[in-house]
Amino acid sequence: MIEKQKLKPISGFPEWLPEVRMVEQAWIDRIRGVFESYGFAPIETRSVEPVEVLLKQGDTDKEIYALRRLMEEEASASEADYALHYDLTVPMARYVAANLNDLTFPFKRYQIQRAWRGERPQEGRFREFTQCDIDVVDTRDIPLHFDAEMPAIVYEVMQALDVGPTVTRINNRKVLEGFYRALGVEQPHEVIRIVDKQDKIGPDGVSKMLTDELSLDGATIGKVLDLARVTGTKADVVERVRALGITGDLLEQGLDELHFVMKALESYPEGAFVADLSVARGLAYYTGTVYEVKFADDPSFPTICGGGRYENLVGSMLNKHLPGIGISIGLTRIFSKLVREGRIAPTRKTPTQVMVCYLPDASYEAVNGVARTLRARGIKTELFHEPRKLKQQLAYASNKGIPHVWFPAVGAEGKHEVKTLATGAQADADPESWLPEG
Amino acid sequence: MIEKQKLKPISGFPEWLPEVRMVEQAWIDRIRGVFESYGFAPIETRSVEPVEVLLKQGDTDKEIYALRRLMEEEASASEADYALHYDLTVPMARYVAANLNDLTFPFKRYQIQRAWRGERPQEGRFREFTQCDIDVVDTRDIPLHFDAEMPAIVYEVMQALDVGPTVTRINNRKVLEGFYRALGVEQPHEVIRIVDKQDKIGPDGVSKMLTDELSLDGATIGKVLDLARVTGTKADVVERVRALGITGDLLEQGLDELHFVMKALESYPEGAFVADLSVARGLAYYTGTVYEVKFADDPSFPTICGGGRYENLVGSMLNKHLPGIGISIGLTRIFSKLVREGRIAPTRKTPTQVMVCYLPDASYEAVNGVARTLRARGIKTELFHEPRKLKQQLAYASNKGIPHVWFPAVGAEGKHEVKTLATGAQADADPESWLPEG
Question: What family name appears in the similarity comment (chains A, B) (predicted)?
Answer without folding.
Answer: Belongs to the class-II aminoacyl-tRNA synthetase family.
